[in-house]
Design a protein that fits this description.
The complex is a heterodimer of chains A (379) and B (629). Chain A has 379 residues and is an all-alpha fold. Helices cover 69% and strands 2% of the residues of chain A. The longest helix of chain A has 34 residues. Classes of the chains: A mainly alpha (379), B alpha+beta (629).
Chain lengths: 379, 629
């Protein structure tokens, strides 16, 4: 073999040369847009308190840097190793989800979703999304048949139901929906028959009904779902967020009111504005164009994720990439849909944009995985 | 498809229907917003603030928005703020709050704590924070009893038409000067017209009436003098606790001296220049709110000694011999005695109809004939017994009905037996017993006072014992009349109400003075006696003022040692009333120490320290400890 040609050939296959710059740039751009929006959403209220107006942005920036470090780390090692360890990662996540229910979790009563380390919170359910996508990918990629049999589907369901159930009883409806989307996404890409998917859907409905009956779903969650249907019911309560968000976005118009000029944003109108309702800031201050720009960034993100799923050298990569694509898609859709009033209020952050460290880390790990799969599609 | 749905909706909201939302955001409804005014300050005589406002970060809870798990939220909040959850719950149920009110549950919360709550808003639904004015006490514990407390308006006050201006979460003065001058301090609430969007959030301000800040209250009280007085009182109390009580009937070895009070008055105006009561408390305890444990330790416990109780104005005691000048004046006014006459001062004296039960003088030897001045100087009980017996005979001879008893009428004239009218919401009027009172008691309980008004009642009253009770403030006010040409002025803490710039709005002090029926000649006799008490050998306070430079600062005074059955150890109440300074600028000082022993051993040295401090004399010598009345 021609040594020079061989070296060139292997050089050409070096993973770093096959980075997906579009994906990397898109995700970083979203995160940077997020920093600006978080500043706009928080600087006024922090200033009135006599605090550093960029306090939240600084924390978010730290999370971004940490996220980028995680991205590099995750991308550095061949993703196929993760397939070997998928079981461990999955197991560890389940243990964390169980532990967060114990007094180790930050809140001894009420919703238990996070651990506190020093000044930081770690929300295991954010990482459960990626762990589940990897685990399902690992299991489904080992199938000998061309499409999953009913027993495979059941096995996958059994694997998924453990973290799903643990997140559901926290209670965290939003993350539950995301996890379900990941399961469905991976199953569809794996070629599951529509008949089997329908069976699964029917079973979930029965389970959901049971959960209501047993009172696992809390009143306020029900209230939010009802409020979504009947907007006249309660202006101050559950629908307050929705009304405020719609007014903020609607008053943005085509071009918006200008950065830091959103009146409703500045007057601290929309609750949870730096987290779940961050999209309102974009809508009010940058108008339809700004909001559409963010949607476009997400569209690019999803296009790259789906493309990577196609390009992947092996089934594991395909499934993991599709799970991540499904994750970003459902989060973006449910979050933006909730903010503009076409989805119920469920409490899902907008990936990369919403304020929150755990979510930021998990999203960059996911991008790291996507880059990893893309980079090593020839090796 | 997803993107199409989202984009379509965005297009609808932001382009097609945008005007509707812009209108909703802009042309929302108008509301009138009540704005609480800034509360006025309480200033000392030199204009220094004793109470003003400061901004505090408070954490508030809106019950309505607590969500599905209110206990959980409050538990987390309590844990985070490091306060017992019961305190927060108690605070929320404390007053008549409505569900939608933002109830302050913690003040002076650190920035870190608020930041944590802000960052973890999802853990704390309904929890918010605010900058609020809270009362600040630049001089700390100084004059705590006088200044009083503010608190949330009570449910009954909300209903009261006098508080029509007030909102349901307004602050009002609850005690002390804060309560007396509430209507001046509070100011006028404003109402501002604001634009509110459909969800009730304020968008813009469209004028209206800004709140008018409250007026300041300027006091006669001098913060520097007050600080000295408080320190001297505490030192004196501690000193008394090291003095052995040699009364053989008492089991303890030292004086208990559990409490004390001092009042300093300007006789010309009745202005209170200092008013101290010990034990005292820190008013900031109430601003920050105490836990149950802290409350019982600082206030509720026996060891705390009832620190909220103002012994200068709210307590009354038997005055003992400090009462004698007023008995002497009543005797002069009624012709019981006369200027220049001499009365025998034996070691004991018995009423003529009851020779078997003599009344003893505190000194166990006969002092011969004494003048009125000398009777005051040596505090001869037997002289006053004789005058008391004479008053009894007068009453017996012509019973003209209730209120006509000559002795009691004279004492009432000095302000005893009724509230002194100081500008405090709660004050003790003391007690002057009468035949009518005894009769009434007897009617209510036939076992009480079956013999009616007795000679002993008048005789004991004439040495300030028996049923007589006076407050330190009343005594100071009455002494002021002796050097104010017989004019008695109602005591006042406040000199005037003024604006922030110091312009007078209303005069408070120097009013309500009235002339008593005593000639200057009669008053001079009493003053001569009071001067001898302190300045002449044989006077009961002579040893306590040994070495004092009277040529620099003239001092008159009267000791008092009042028996007070009912205390733990039955130790005497120690009194000293002093009049100091040149005639043009005199001050009355009354010192009282509960269970402090003789007037000359405990109260007089405290008065001496105060005088030394007032005139910058330094230490003029160790006050002698001679056990005389």
């Amino acid at each position: 073999m021609d040594l020079v040609a061989g070296r060139v050939w292997s050089d050409e296959r070096r993973p770093i040369r096959h980075l997906d710059p579009v994906l990397l740039a898109t995700s970083m751009l979203l995160a940077v847009v997020g920093l600006f929006l978080v500043y706009s959403a928080t600087n006024q209220s922090l200033r009135t308190l006599g605090l550093d107006p960029s306090q939240f942005v600084k924390k978010q920036f730290t999370a971004l840097v940490l996220g980028f470090v995680m991205l590099v780390l995750v991308a550095a090692f061949d993703y196929r190793f993760y397939k070997v360890y998928a079981g461990f990662i999955y197991g560890a996540t389940v243990v964390a989800l169980v532990l967060v229910q114990t007094p180790l979790g930050a809140s001894p009563s009420g919703a238990q979703r996070w651990f506190t380390f020093g000044g930081f919170q770690l929300t295991p359910s954010e990482f459960a999304k990626i762990a589940l996508a990897s685990m399902l990918g690992a299991v489904l990629s080992e199938l000998r048949t061309s499409e999953p049999t009913l027993s495979d589907v059941l096995r996958v369901t059994m694997i998924a139901i453990v973290p799903l159930g643990l997140v559901f009883i926290q209670p965290d409806i939003g993350t539950t929906i995301v996890l379900v989307a990941i399961v469905v996404g991976v199953l569809v890409v794996a070629g599951t028959r529509p008949k089997h998917l329908a069976t699964l859907a029917a079973a979930s409905l029965v389970l959901l009904f049971g959960a209501f009956q047993m009172g696992i779903i809390k009143d306020y969650q029900l209230e939010r779902l009802i409020a979504f249907r009947d907007t006249k019911m309660d202006l101050q309560g559950a629908n307050y967020n929705r009304t405020q968000a719609e007014i903020a976005i609607g008053s943005g118009g085509l071009l918006g009111q200008g950065y830091l000029n959103g009146r409703l944003t500045n007057l601290d109108f929309v609750p949870e504005q730096h987290t779940d309702f961050i999209f309102t800031v974009a809508g009010e201050e940058f108008g339809f164009l700004g909001a559409a720009f963010i949607l476009a960034l997400f569209a690019i993100l999803m296009w790259r994720a789906i493309r990577i799923s196609y390009l992947s050298k092996d089934a594991f990569g395909t499934y993991v990439a599709s799970g991540i694509a499904a994750m970003f898609a459902i989060q973006m859709f449910v979050n933006v849909g909730m903010v503009i009033g076409i989805m119920p209020i469920t409490g899902i952050p907008l990936p990369f944009v919403s304020y929150g460290g755990s979510s930021m880390l998990a999203n960059f790990i996911a991008v790291g995985l996507l880059l990893n799969i893309h980079m090593r599609r020839f090796t | 498809m997803m993107f199409a749905a989202l984009t379509a909706r965005l297009w609808y909201l932001q382009v097609l229907a945008s005007q509707t939302y812009v209108d909703m955001a802009n042309n929302s409804s108008f509301h009138w917003l009540q704005v609480e005014p800034e509360r006025g300050r309480i200033l000392d005589a030199n204009g220094g603030p004793l109470v003003d406002d400061r901004q505090s970060r408070v954490v508030t809870v809106q019950q309505q928005l607590l969500g599905s798990d209110p206990e959980g939220v409050l538990f987390r909040l309590a844990q985070h703020l490091g306060v017992p959850e019961a305190d927060i719950v108690e605070r929320m149920h404390d007053t008549k709050y409505f569900d939608y009110q933002r109830i302050p549950v913690a003040v002076d919360v650190s920035l870190e704590d608020i930041l944590y709550i802000a960052e973890h808003a999802k853990q704390f639904p309904g929890v918010s924070w605010d900058q609020q004015s809270v009362r600040r006490y630049p001089e700390g514990e100084l004059a705590a009893h006088v200044l009083g407390q503010v608190g949330l308006i009570s449910a009954t006050q909300v209903e009261d038409p006098a508080f029509a201006d007030y909102g349901t979460s307004d602050t009002v003065g609850r005690t002390g000067l804060e309560a007396t001058y509430e209507r001046f301090l509070h100011g006028t609430p404003g109402s501002i017209k604001i634009v509110v969007n459909p969800a009730g959030k304020q968008l813009d301000e469209l004028g209206g009436q800004r709140p008018v800040p409250g007026y300041d209250v300027k006091l006669y009280l001098d913060a520097k003098l007050q600080a000295k007085v408080e320190r001297d009182l505490l030192n004196g109390i501690q000193r008394a606790r090291s003095i052995p009580d040699q009364d053989p009937t008492n089991a303890v070895t030292n004086f208990v001296a559990n409490a004390g009070a001092v009042v300093v008055l300007d006789p010309k105006t009745g202005g209170v220049e200092a008013s101290a009561s010990w034990p005292t408390y820190d008013p900031t305890w109430f601003v920050k709110r105490m836990s149950r444990g802290e409350y019982s330790e600082r206030i509720g416990s026996r060891a705390a000694g009832d620190p909220l109780f103002d012994r200068a104005t709210q307590a009354s005691y038997a005055p003992g011999s400090t009462f004698k000048p007023f008995i002497a004046l009543a005797a002069l006014d009624n012709g019981v005695t006369s200027i220049g006459s001499y009365t025998d001062c034996p070691s004991s004296w018995a009423y003529r109809l009851d020779p078997e039960n003599p009344f003893n003088n505190w000194a166990p030897y006969d002092q011969g004939l004494v003048s009125i001045q000398e009777a005051l100087k040596v505090s001869c009980d037997t002289v006053f017994y004789q005058w008391g017996g004479e008053f009894y005979d007068r009453w017996r001879a012509n019973q003209l009905g209730a209120g006509s008893e000559p002795l009691q009428r004279g004492l009432r004239g000095f302000g005893f037996g009724h509230e002194p009218g100081i500008d405090l919401p709660s004050q003790n009027g003391g007690f002057i017993p009468t035949a009518a009172w005894k009769e009434q008691q007897n009617q209510e309980d036939p076992k009480a006072f079956p013999y009616g008004w007795l000679p002993g009642d008048d005789i004991l009253m004439s040495i300030g014992q028996g049923y007589v009770l006076v407050s330190p403030l009343q005594l100071a006010s009455a002494y002021a009349a002796i050097v104010n040409g017989g004019r008695l002025c109602e005591p006042r803490l406040a000199e005037q109400i003024q604006t922030v710039d110091g312009a007078r709005v209303q005069r408070i002090g120097g009013q309500g003075c009235r002339r008593l029926p005593y000639s200057q000649q009669e008053l001079d006799v009493i003053q001569q006696g009071l001067a001898q008490v302190v300045q002449e050998s044989g006077g009961t306070a002579f040893s306590a003022f040994a070495g004092f430079p009277f040529d620099q600062v003239p001092v008159m005074g009267k000791t008092g040692t009042a028996e007070r059955p009912g205390f733990d150890q039955n130790q005497d109440t120690s009194w000293f009333a002093a009049i100091v300074g040149p005639p043009s600028d005199q001050h009355v000082i009354v010192v009282m120490v509960e269970q402090g022993g003789h007037g000359s051993t405990t109260a007089a040295p405290i008065a001496r320290s105060i005088i030394e401090d007032m005139y910058g004399l330094g230490d003029t010598g160790v006050a002698g400890i001679e056990r005389v009345d």
